[in-house]
Amino acid sequence: MYTRVLRFAPSPNGYLHLGHAYSALLNYDMARESGGRLLLRIEDIDAARCRPEYEAAIYEDLHWLGISWTGPVRRQSEHFADYEAAIAKLDAARLLYASFESRSEINALVAEREREGPWPRDPDGGPLYPGRARKMPLADRERRRRAGEPFALRLAMDAAMARAGVLTWTESGHGPQGQTGLMTATPQRWGDVVLARKELLTSYHLAVVLDDALQGVTEIVRGQDLFWATGVHRLLQALLGLPEPAYHHHRLILDEEGRKLSKATQATSLRELRALGRSAADIRRMVGLGR
Ligand code: GLU
Question: How many other β-carbons are positioned within 10 Å of the β-carbon of residue 233?
Answer without folding.
Answer: 25
